[in-house]
Amino acid sequence: MWLLYIRSNFPIKTTHTTFRFLSTALAHEPQQSFSSSSNDTVSSNNLHTFHVLQTLNRFRNHPSLALSFFNQVKRKGFVHNVSTYAAFVRILCYWKLDRRLDSLFLELIAVSKEYPSFEINELFETLLEEANYVNNNHSHYLVKAFDGFVKTCVSVGMFDEAIDFLFRNRRRGIVPNILTCNFLINQLVENGKVDMALAIYKQLKRLGLSPNCYTYAIVVKAQCKKGDMEGAAHVFDEMEEARVTPNLYCYSAYIEGLCNNHSSYLGYEVLQACRRDNVLLEVYPYTVVIRGFCNEKKLDEAERVLLDMETQGLVPDVYVYSALIHGYCKSHNLLKALALHNDMISRGIKTNCVIASHILHCLGQMGMTLEVVGQFKELKESGMFLDEIVYNIVFDALCKLGKVDDAMEMVKDMKANNMVLDIKHYTTLISGYCLQGKLTSAFSMFEEMREKGFTPDVVTYNVLASGLSRNGHACEAINLLEYMESQGVNPNTTTHKMIIEGLCCAGKVVEAEAYFNSLEAKSIEIYSAMVTGYCEADLIDKSYELFLTLSNQGIIAKEASCFKLLSKLCMIGDTNRAVEFLERMLLLNVEPSKIMYSKVLAALCQAGNMKQARSSFDFFVERGFTPDVVTYTIMINSYCRMNCLQEAHDLFQDMKSRGIKPDVITYTVLLDGNLKANLKRHFFHRHREGDNIATFDFSNIWRDMKQMEISPDVVSYTVLIDGQIKIENFQDAIILFDEMIKKGLEPDTVTYTALISGFCKKGHMEKAVMLLNEMSSKGMTPDLHVISALKRGIVKARKVQFLK
């Protein structure tokens, strides 16, 4: 703590002191009150001031009476002045009525704004002069008043006034409390005025003030917000020189700064170093490291920190879980996010609307709009408080489902809960009406938003421009841009992009081209919008030509546009141009995404061009592409469909050698391919002896699958059952069927169809009917294959019976 420069108690109770105080106050009474223009009023008011001061002095040991009297005379029309305010400030300071003092200073700030002739500085001049009449040991109220006023200014964002007041009175010998300085510097940092905060810190040090550990921690935070991690580390050197021991707050600020500046590994190292130095760590530093790793999409590391934290005996709180859940939601790993949420609930930690918003937003981003609405209803029924952010997420989901009327009903619910719509809510609802083509309703909502005092921003205008364009209103979209500019809002790249793509979606390609050509400065985003627009209008040739024109100039369209065009090429089976597309990207040192590689390979496989698929696969791998289990499975499946089992098995081994674990689908594809090959071999052995069909023992695949601890699913068992039935191995088929049920897997329609068809073919109609009844009891409806098999089986059975 700073040593106070002036120390004083309340004025000593003597008539001499009282009258000296009153004479000083009257000497500072202005010749004209700031609220009156009459000299008669002034003299009357002067006399009244004398009595007010006298009464306040009498009530100095009874603060509640002083407060009541102060407010009472104000209600009766007395206009308080510098003298009466000063007297009342002294009482509040003496009795440490800080909240009352804050309210009074807020009132003084309002008065000074309404009546410029009232100078707050005069009030403090009066307090300072009064303090000089008594012993310095009795003027502690003076410093308290000065500190209180600085804090009040800071709390209402009057930073310049607070700083000016602080340094002006420092020159008069008033030394501010270190807590006040900390409050000022911290609020400057929190409000983004980092450079100003650091300048104040340096100036205060020059004036001889000694920072404490909290001051240093705030400065560490400031340096980190600037991104100056070296400067933040230097603060610890300053602390060492000043012989101030860093506390947990200092270390936490530094760790958080490192994590916020994408150095979470280093932040974690600092945390571990603190632990080795026996610094008593709490949950918060672990929370910021976990949040840092999540923001850097290093979720495995975040979970390791969680485990480390728990081994140290610390219990993760809602903020730890919120950070992890948010991280997995941003990565669209919804299953993991929900698992963490369930774990949190099982530990007795209550969820909140922030976590709910993360999960609902993730559902929406993944296109699971119905689930968003369903989850919202469940959360609401549970009694959880849901804020405006959650409501906006649900508005968006309902609008995408075409249920804007339901969203409008929810608006009533919001208002009933004293929630106020903001510009984001209005923009979402406007977007919903635009998606439905209800442009009149969209513009009505736009007008309502303006009437409520909201100024539409570029996002709102973009939504309207997109709505007009997608509904084919080119002229109206252009007119909206002109109106938008007249309101001081300039169209941005997104505006132009939405108009071009929207017009193309509406089939107004000529208008889109005209708008595109009218733009003088065309960025890569604008060209990309045209590439996408042509795709939306199914003009693939034009889109590809524009892509080639750009690539010939060394420019590649934005990733989303490239993906759109490539998807269209793959969809129409134009594999030559799809391969060329990727080669162009690679020539310009633009790395295609993994899904782009996979799409091209899948298209080649779909076309049955396995030679080109394998050639492209090897080329892509050489260029750094790491195929995943899906890509391998697609290619293995294509080889199996073409009876190229050797190539399929070679690719399967290549997959495992790269450390990529096959999944249940991969094994099922291999099983299906080999069983079908076995069926052909069985057929040829019976009818065309001498032909050789390459096959592999499917039992080895089945065994390998179990060794890899991959559990077969219903499809896997069905493939095996069907394969055994087709080679008339009914006993093994039944064994597999029973094994499947024992493992808790429920046979589906395909499984029953395979068995029933097999039994009917062999004339085992009783078993077939029994399975049919079992199937029906489970709510499954027999399809045409089952019915046809039964008819054939019945006919065959009758023929056999007739022959007998």
Automatic annotation (TrEMBL):
Gene3D superfamilies linked: Tetratricopeptide repeat domain (1.25.40.10)
Coiled coil: none
Family matches, as InterPro entries: PPR/CCM1_RNA-binding, PPR_rpt, TPR-like_helical_dom_sf
Keywords for this protein: Repeat
Repeat (PPR) residue spans along the chain: 177-211, 212-246, 282-316, 317-351, 387-421, 422-456, 457-491, 523-557, 593-627, 628-662, 713-747, 748-782
PROSITE patterns: PPR
Record-annotated membrane-spanning stretches: none
Top-level taxon: Eukaryota
Pfam families, per the entry: PPR, PPR_1, PPR_2
Protein name: Pentatricopeptide repeat-containing protein
